[in-house]
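User: Can you predict the 3D structure for this chain?
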Amino acid sequence: MEHFNDIVEILGDEEKAELVIQASKSSMGYDISDYDMKNITNFADRVASLAVYRQDLASYLHKKMMDISPNLTTLVGDIVGARLINRAGSLISLAKYPASTVQILGAEKALFRALKNRSQTPKYGLIYNSSFITRAKTRDKGRISRYLANKCVMASRIDAFSEFSTTKFGEALRQQVLDRLKFYESGVIPAKNIEIMHAVVEEVKNEQSTTTNKSPMEQEEQPEEQEEEEPEEQPEESMEEEPKKVKKSRKSRKNLT
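Assistant: Here is the predicted structure, written as structure tokens:
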């Protein structure tokens, strides 16, 4: 129990420290040499640095994807969205694809092999890595992949051709896919797509109007400020300037005569 506190500081858990001490009593290990300990510490430092690098890379990818395609990222995630765009070549190319192409995007070899051998064609490609496909049952994987590909195309078209950036459409599309999964499991009929899209469009329009237009209180305050800023002595100055002009005109007449 001499090194109990040291082990607790390293592991950060007293229960694990007790397990380590109990295992050390029945273990047939031997003392670690300085050379072996050096290699172990180097390996641990490298693993820790790789973990930090992975977090930095994930945050960088998330930021880039939210700038390029926020709705597609909200729908399927950073990695799947980036793979779809990479496979298509660009976001605009992905937006031009039909849903049937996006569904099997990444499984072209399996498709051509199936067509050559006249066997069953693949049901999904890169979108198989989405959580929606893995969450669905085996019999529903094909249907949910077709539905998810349709929503991916809609999200990519909104991201590619919309004039403003928002995640409202991606959130609505994601909720539609979740409702479709519930429909496959329980039979609860989800809402129609056109109704949801109209509601999202109205919500986005209201947000834009509130951000672009100023509040009525601010609009009422503006005229008051302008009235206060207007100088009251302008008429007097103009009256003083008029006699000067009249005097100059009289002098010019005298010179002419």
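Confidence is low (pLDDT under 50) at residues 222-231, 234-249. Residues 69-212 form a domain with the Serum Albumin; Chain A, Domain 1 fold (CATH 1.10.246.90).
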